[in-house]
Design brief:
The chain is α+β, with helices and mostly antiparallel strands. The protein is built from 14 helices and 6 strands. Helix 1 crosses helix 2, helix 7 (147-160) packs across helix 10 and helix 9 (175-181) runs antiparallel to helix 10.
């Protein structure tokens, strides 16, 4: 009987039950606390972002004026709190509000940010939570321009409990695009409101498993052929927007330098500009390695392929996600790699 407790009601409670129940209770309450802290943080950034936008709208030159507002606010808040409110953080707060400004009603906003009423959280938790993921997840989601795609990843990350690394991996693997290619238009829109719902045998067959986790290649024909068609269609439109005179030369054009093979995704020649145009397709987020690789391609063509009377080679990177700051800091001035880097989906 040494391992049992006798409560006042006479019911035996073993030590094992006591330990298990206590652990489960602490885990449960910690989960509640974590969700509340996360929601408080998100609503705080939402409110600060809203106030920044409202002050910006009173300025004449919004871009320059807005930047100065954020800088001044960052200095004041870091002086008060020590750290945690950098210019980048406040710019993300501004973007957070602009992206999700319809998530919080005017009544809830006033009770939280103006009246600072604690009872507002009881109301929020009794109803639908406006935000269900950590701040790190929303930093990634805000980079997704398409609203339906952004909603899809938010729903999937919430329902499946994705970590930020898993969310990044699923986004980099173009899960949304691959799912969208396997459904009718109406069902694609449903993805944005419900996530990935399996209702038919076809949904299981065509649902793309992220096989890069195992180092394997995708084998589903619809992934290879349909996705390629989408890329080529958008690429054709992009080239028409750039101008006339583009002549296709090669796909996966190989060249060898110092016994090492390199492959350029697409090689064009523009008869009006009289120069080569090299295009690389990047499905992941743009990196400085991608830019460096394109610089190397451009230099090779200028030195070994271009004729003396032809103009310098142009390099174009078509990527899923653009980073202006990375482009600016990586590329030399007057680079022939176009600063116009665009999404091809």
């Amino acid at each position: 009987m040494a391992n049992e407790l006798i409560p006042e009601d006479g019911v035996n409670l073993s030590i094992n039950d006591l330990c298990r129940n206590s652990i489960e209770l602490v885990e449960y309450t910690r989960g509640i606390a974590a969700r509340q802290i996360n929601l408080v943080q998100l609503m705080t950034f939402y409110a600060i972002g809203r106030w920044i936008v409202e002050v910006e709208q009173q300025g004449e030159s919004r871009a320059k004026y807005g930047r100065q507002i954020i800088k001044n606010l960052s200095e004041a808040m870091n002086k008060q709190f020590g750290r945690g409110f950098s210019v980048d953080t406040l710019e993300n707060a501004r973007k957070f509000y602009l992206t999700y400004q319809d998530r919080i009603s005017e009544t809830v906003f006033r009770k939280f940010a103006v009246e600072k009423s604690e009872t507002v959280f009881l109301r929020i938790f009794e109803e639908t939570l406006p935000f269900t993921l950590p701040w790190s997840h929303y930093l990634l989601l805000m980079r997704i321009k398409d609203e339906n795609e952004r909603k899809f990843y938010e729903i999937e990350a919430t329902q499946s409990g994705w970590s930020i690394r898993t969310l990044q991996r699923q986004y980099n693997s173009s899960l949304y695009e691959r799912l969208a290619l396997s459904r009718e238009k109406g069902e694609v829109l449903r993805l944005a409101s419900e996530g990935n719902i399996v209702t038919r045998p076809q949904d299981i067959v065509k649902q793309p498993t992220v096989l890069e986790f195992l180092g394997l290649d995708e084998k589903a024909k619809f992934v290879e052929s349909d996705l390629e068609t989408v890329i080529i269609n958008k690429l054709q439109k992009f080239l028409l927007e750039l101008g006339k005179g583009y002549l296709f030369e090669a796909r996966q054009k190989r060249f060898t330098y110092r016994e090492e093979n390199f492959y350029v995704d697409l090689v064009f020649y523009n008869r009006l500009l009289r120069c080569y145009v090299l295009i690389d397709l990047k499905i992941d987020k743009l990196t400085h390695q991608d830019l460096g690789q394109m610089l190397m391609y451009v230099h090779y063509y200028d030195r070994y392929e271009k004729l003396p009377d032809e103009n310098p080679t142009i390099g174009i990177l078509l990527c899923k996600e653009k980073d202006d700051a990375l482009v600016e800091i990586t590329l030399p001035e007057n680079s022939n790699i176009y600063d116009k880097i665009t999404s091809y989906f």
